[in-house]
Amino acid sequence: MTFGRNWPGEARADRIGVGAALVAALLLLTGCGACRKAKGAGDPGAPTALARFSLLEGAVSLKARGEVDWKGASPQQPLNRDDLIRTGPKGIAEITFFDNTVIRVGPNSLIAIAEEPGDPGTLDRQVKWHVTSGEVNFRTPKKAAGRRDSAAQLSTPTLTGQVAELTKADVRVEDTGASDLRVFEGSGQVQTKTGQRVPVGAAEGVKVDAKSVAGSATRLPPPPVLLRPAHQAVLRYPDPSKATTVLEWKPVEGAMYRVMVDQSAHFNVPFVDQRGLQASVVDVRGLAEGEYFWRVATVLQGFEGPFSDYARLTVQRPSVAEGKPPRLVVDSFDVRTNILHLKGMTAHGASVTVNGQRLEVRPDGTFNEFVMLDKPGQQVVLVQATSLDGGVAEKKLPVVVRF
After folding, report:
1. Residue 321 is assigned to a structural domain of this protein
2. ∠133-166-94 over CA atoms, to 5°?
3. Confidence at 265, pLDDT banded by 50, 70, 90
4. Are 156 and 271 contained in the same domain?
5. Other CB atoms closer than 10 Å to residue 196's CB: what's the count?
6. CA 93, CA 383: separation in Å to the nearest integer?
7. Is 236 domain-assigned?
8. Is residue 365 in a domain?
9. Is the bond into 229 cis (omega within 30 degrees of 0)?
10. Where are the beta strands (DSSP E) in 168-322?
């Protein structure tokens, strides 16, 4: 991320000359209204900008203080106190404050830029923002020498939070106003409208309900361990549009999960963002050729922990020299009524289907599954194993199905 040296609206000394004298004479003729319009960036009393947009994705709108209409946000646009920022369903806005505090406003969010009293350019100036709805992820820099207060402040309809320097955290607000603050690194403190104060340490979270009642600080679950595909795996499918990519991670007892897949490691606009998953595996169908990134967060006791490090995978079509069939062994199979019980083994990383239905394959390549067959009578069941490079091995099993 690149930060500019000069912020829009910074005061600069005006040059005095004949031209300035002529401008002054014209202003006297046109009245005080023009005088007010002339006050701006060149006025030593004008405030410096608090922040600016450092990244924009999707629909992001801005309503400046005193304005009636919402307008589309622009990169590097300066932001000041009481400016409102709104993101759409796939909108992302990254905002960098004057002290290098960075906040990332998630989709479907509404926030306001705020500021504690203090003179521009002094240590008394305080970074602050208010979240009306949605989610904001943020990080604070090292505080300037001599500063004694918190690095930044945030607020929601039900809480006010203070965070220390070098803190990475996330605040989320539901439609009811209920809020939660999760601190991944660093520390902070939450104060509710009812006067409760709750300190929040690293890897802890606190919830405040719609009535502004806070719970105790709760330990966040650790990020899950991603199992497959391995980081930097290359998946080769003869027809990617019909292929299924299986994402799997190490399960945590009693947990739920959130999975994100994007074509960018920044996960600005993920095309997969599934919450509330109970299984530690998810199928992603029809990935086009290209590079993808995926990550997973664990949700335990109502708190979503930090995301895992991302894993990168590449989807390709196999070349002529590729596509060696994997090992496929069927140890036993048996049909009872219309249920096929199948045991066997394939190569590590290969996927197995029975008449197109995917089986669960263990990390060591073994499988032991039950498959429902739809058609009655004597028939042939097709078992296929597909390797990571797109090679296919087949077994045809004669069976009789009796309903």
Report:
1. no
2. 40
3. very high
4. no
5. 15
6. 48
7. yes
8. yes
9. yes
10. 168-173, 179-185, 188-192, 197-200, 204-208, 218-219, 226-228, 233-236, 244-249, 256-262, 272-277, 281-285, 290-300, 303-307, 311-316
Cβ–Cβ under 8 Å, residues 70 and 1: no
- pLDDT of res. 341: 94
Q: Would you state the structure tokens that stand for residue 191, as one six-digit string?
A: 């104060």
Q: What are phi and psi of 318, to 5 degrees?
A: -70, 145
Which structural domain, as residue segments, surrounds residue 362? 328-401
- Rounded to whole angstroms, the Cα distance separating 121 from 145 reads 14
344-363 pLDDT, tens per residue? 999 988 888 888 777 889 98
Residue at a domain's end among 189, 219, 249: 219
**CA 215 – CA 181 distance, rounded (Å):** 11
CA distances from 174 to 131, 177, 207, 263 (A): 10, 5, 11, 28
pLDDT digit string (tens) for 200-231? Answer: 999 999 999 999 999 999 999 999 988 888 88
User: 61 and 16, same structural domain?
Assistant: no
Regarding whether 240 and 284 lie in a shared domain, the answer is: yes
Boundary-marking domain end, from 171, 201, 219: 219
Residue 358 to residue 246: CA distance in whole angstroms: 10
> What pLDDT is stored for residue 35 in this prediction?
36
Q: How many domains does the structure of the chain reveal?
A: 4
Task: Name 340's bridge partners.
Answer: 335, 371
Quick one: tokens of 240? 């990617």
DSSP assigned state of 378 = E
Q: 323 in a domain, yes or no?
A: no
Q: What percent of the chain has pLDDT over 70?
A: 83
Q: Are residues 79 and 125 in the same domain?
A: yes
Tell me, yes or no, whether 125 and 240 share the same domain: no
- Does one domain contain both 24 and 112? no
End-to-end CA distance of the chain: 64
Quote the CA–CA distance of 70 and 90 in Å, as a whole number: 18
- Residue pair 282/317 in contact (Cβ under 8 Å)? The answer is no
